[in-house]
Amino acid sequence: MKFGALLAGAALALTAHAANDLGTNFPQTSGLPAGWAFSGCYSDRFYSSVGNRALGAYWRTGISANSGAACINICQGISTTYVYAGNQDNQCWCDTGINNNQTVNQYGVKLDDNYCHFECRGTTGQTCGSTNRGNGPQLGPALSIYTNQQAADPGNAFIIAKPTKDF
């Protein structure tokens, strides 16, 4: 009997932590750090921790209460040069740009926002990407990506030119 209760408890523990499919996209739009906004849902790929991903510079998993703001704070805590933060379930990804590999099974491609329809782990009613987009050329997970609008806007960049010779 104790073993049966243990198995039942283990099954409940697994289902309690699985991402819920909300059926549509509910990104975090308020309570974000200043200058940050939801950019959209982007394709990603399986089986790579960093590198060849839509956001591949830094990755953290096991976030117990993931959200747009939580992921942004993680990225900014690692490096203020990260202007993109993306989440999927209990994972957070950071980078200075959105990578796109320009191949059939593309990553870094803007998708319809409703592809990001799985609830963030530990945050009720907010979506954090999805685990699988189905069959066809757009296989694999999707990321809900947030952008630091001030840092990513080239209109806010300054160019400082120095002459190479004195005139």
Automatic annotation (TrEMBL):
Q: Quick one: signal sequence residues? A: 1-18
Keyword annotations from UniProtKB, A to Z = Signal
Q: Name one Pfam family in it.
A: WSC
Q: Which domain of life is it from?
A: Eukaryota
Question: Ranges for the WSC domain?
Answer: 35-140
Please verify whether the record's keywords include Signal. Answer: yes
Name the UniProt record assigns to this protein: WSC domain-containing protein
High-level lineage: Eukaryota, Fungi, Dikarya, Ascomycota, Pezizomycotina
